[in-house]
Amino acid sequence: MKIFVKAKPKSRENKVEKIDDQHFTISVKEPPIDNKANIAIMELLSEYFNVPISSIGLISGRTSKNKVFDIR
């Protein structure tokens, strides 16, 4: 399943906001340096969908705020 994420790094809290079935806004405390924010987003998605982190892959948007993830 593909999901589209708008990332908000360096936020006050970690949270997942569902816009619709495929679109989410995710806030993380980590800065967008050395892939830290992407890893934090994947950890939040892992908890939200109750799947292991190894089942989540970043398809596009490694350096962008708009990202596409694949959840197996």
Secondary structure elements and pairings:
Elements: E1 2-8, E2 15-18, E3 23-27, H1 36-49, E4 56-60, E5 66-71
Parallel strand pairs: 1-3
Antiparallel strand pairs: 1-5, 2-3, 4-5
Spatial shape = globular
Chain-averaged pLDDT: 95
Terminal residue distance: 6 Å
- Largest sheet at a glance? 5 strands, mixed
Q: What is the chains' assembly state?
A: single chain
Poorly predicted spans:
none
What does this structure look like?
By secondary structure, the protein is α+β, with helices and mostly antiparallel strands. The protein is built from one helix and five strands. The protein has one helix at residues 36-49; strands at 2-8, 15-18, 23-27, 56-60, 66-71. Strands 2-3-1-5-4 form a five-stranded mixed sheet, with helices on one face. Strand 2 and strand 3 form a beta hairpin. The radius of gyration is 11 Å and the shape is globular.
Task: Tag the structure with descriptive keywords.
single chain, 72 residues, alpha+beta, five-stranded mixed sheet, 1 helix, 19% helix, 38% strand, globular
